[in-house]
Design a protein that fits this description.
- By secondary structure, the protein is of the alpha+beta class.
- The chain is 36% helix and 12% strand.
- The two termini are 29 Å apart.
């Protein structure tokens, strides 16, 4: 995980980006089949509009070096893409031909939310609707590069990380063996909000507990009066204990308080 390398990303994009901090960026694992990938792109863009966001552009494919992968990782390697998302201008939203009244009303439900929270909801909306698409991260602050490989392969696989122009004030690297679940690209450490190296042996109990707590969450004020159903279920059920912990921390930070 690194802080968003704004200057470097601008040099990579053939489209204009808003000022630093006013756009989000994320890496996505997508299907290798072109038709399924096109459906995934449409889904991301449709969900963005519902949240009052707009997709600024894509880097597809993200430059990678597949030669460094082991046999199993290579056989399950996804198509890696990078998406850029910003706040939609209300005037452009209302005037666009494709914007239905339902979509405009939906976007209005999230007017009280900052960009980072909307990006969090966009990531969740995609995750819950398309299991073949995995959003590694989506944020205006940080970006996650991950996969099914060893730490030394990480910097050889992603060409972005080899560039001297790619500079960041924050950089964290995490590696561990998969224990509670079978290894996969999606289950590599989530790293959206936490760097966790523990062993959670009460996973089933934790899942039951968070589902119970969801039923008790009825006050939407902590979430800018946005519809609470957009934040649930907290557990996205990808089979990783660290992923569930990361989901919970995401929710707490989205609320800005534990009360």
């Amino acid at each position: 995980m690194i802080s968003v390398p704004d200057e470097y990303l601008r040099s990579c994009c053939n489209f204009d980006l808003p000022p630093e901090g006013q756009y989000g960026v994320g890496n996505l694992f997508m299907p290798r089949q072109e038709d399924k990938r096109e459906d995934a792109v449409k889904l991301v863009e449709r969900m963005a509009r519902r949240l009052g966001l707009e997709v600024i552009g894509w880097r597809t494919p993200l430059p990678v070096n597949s030669l460094v992968l082991g046999p199993y990782a290579k056989s399950t390697e996804p198509f890696v893409a990078q998406v850029f998302v910003g706040m939609a201008e209300s005037s452009a939203e209302s005037g666009s031909e494709g914007a239905t009244s339902k979509a405009k009303a939906s976007a209005g439900d999230y007017e009280g939310l900052p960009l980072e929270t909307r990006l969090f909801l966009l990531r969740r909306a995609v995750a819950l609707r398309a299991r073949e698409v995995f959003v590694c991260s989506l944020s205006c602050r940080t970006i996650t590069y991950k996969g099914q490989f060893k730490p030394d392969q990480l910097f050889e696989y992603y060409m972005d990380l080899k560039s001297e122009q790619c500079t960041a004030f924050l950089a964290l690297v995490h590696s561990r063996f998969s224990t509670n679940s079978f290894p996969s690209w999606n289950r590599a450490h989530p790293f959206r909000r936490i760097a966790h190296n523990g062993e959670i042996n009460t996973l089933a109990g934790n899942r039951n507990s968070i589902r119970t707590r969801e039923a008790l969450m009825t006050n939407s004020k902590a979430f800018g009066d946005a519809p609470l159903e957009a934040f649930f279920p907290v557990d996205e059920d990808i089979g990783s204990d660290s992923a569930l912990l990361d989901n919970v921390v995401e929710l707490l930070l989205a609320a800005g308080t534990r009360d």
